[in-house]
Amino acid sequence: MRAYLLFDELISDVFRSAYERAISFALPDRRLFDLWAVARSHAAVEQRVENYRGVGRPELTASVLRRRHAEWTERLLDPR
Q: What's the pTM value of the predicted model, to 2 decimals?
């Protein structure tokens, strides 16, 4: 989720693939794991603004994070 919020879907997928290669194990049911992360972070995604500002990402405002979170949620809920 953090890679998606900080960057985008492509970077998130690259990170996850690299992680799976590093642990020599494919994460089972990625979509379910991502849905869990989205549900868990829904109420407080805007609270991450200060964390991201601290790593040099001041453009990630509360509204930008909420929009990205909503986009990711929508992508995960799309049955395609």
A: 0.80
Q: Is residue 24 left, alpha or beta, with left meaning phi > 0 and alpha meaning psi from -120 to 50? A: left
Count of structural domains, the chain: 1
**Burial code of 37-74, b = ≥16 C-beta within 10 A, e = fewer?**
ebeebeeebeebbeebeeeebeebeeeebeebbeebbe
Tell me which residue range forms the domain holding 61.
2-77
pLDDT band at 1 (very low <50, low <70, confident <90, very high): confident
Half-sphere exposure (CA, 13 Å, Cβ side) for 18? 7
| pLDDT (average), residues 40-66 | 93
* 80: three-class secondary structure by DSSP: coil
- Which residues, at least 6 apart from 21, have a Cβ–Cβ distance to it below 8 Å? none
